[in-house]
Amino acid sequence: MDIASTYSSQLSSNAVTPYSNDYVGGIQLIEKSGFIPFKDKNPLNSTLNQIFEEFKEKTGFDVDVKELKDEFLDKNPRTRSAMTLYNSLETTFSSNRGASSAIESFLNEKIDEYVSESDEDGDGVLNAEEGELDETLFAEIDKDKDEKIDASEMKNNFYDKFNSLNNILNYFKTNQGTLVDTYA
Question: Cβ distance 94 to 117 under 8 Å?
Fold first, then answer.
């Protein structure tokens, strides 16, 4: 039996405490959030790859997913060095005292950088000619239809459309131990 089948059978077992602070609990949290834990080499790597793939797709940024993940791990060494899967997830997705989590801070920083670098006229917003967004995505992000988008609009659009990321972030923002089912 392969490792994915072993953990899959453990996940369906009633003997497993939901979202316990161990490997199986981490797998449960990843799956319940909507990510595929064994898509790549390991569950954390799989989850981060899926986040950065969605980031690329939902923002329209021309980024290398592997480079983005490596940069995130370089800036967040606690995620890379955590001893257990659950601790890695907690380090990546939890926030302290109202601050953003490591992954939120990193993604927000990337959006801010993109807007700043693409803003040719220096007004702090992007018009349809600035940046590399196609017309459809630009119109989707421009909720107020003023033909300009700022970093805030890009962030709102990104997080509004990414339920899997919201699910795992909300887990760590609410009572740890029960995943909020409002997105299910």
Answer: no
Mean pLDDT of 10-21: 48
User: By mean pLDDT, which of 66-70, 86-90, 124-128 is the weakest?
Assistant: 86-90
CB distance 85 to 38 below 8 Å: no
Burial of 100 (0-12, 13-18, 19+ CB in 10 A): middle
Task: Report the amino acid identity of residue 127.
Answer: N
Which range has the worst mean pLDDT, 41-50, 52-61, 117-126, 171-180? Answer: 171-180
Query: What does each C-alpha distance from 44 to 24, 32, 47, 58, 92 come to in angstroms?
Result: 13, 14, 5, 21, 10
For residue 46, how many other CB atoms are within 10 A of its CB? 17
**Sequence-separated (6 or more) residues with CB below 8 Å from residue 6:** none
CB 142 within 8 A of CB 133: no
Phi, then psi, of 168 in degrees rounded to 5: -75, -35
Average pLDDT of the residues of the chain: 81
Among candidate residues 56, 52, 64, 60, the one with its CA nearest the CA of residue 132: 60
One-letter amino acid identity for 181? D
Provide φ and ψ at 111, rounded to 5°. -65, -45
pLDDT at 11: 45
Cα distance from N-terminal residue to C-terminal residue, the chain: 30
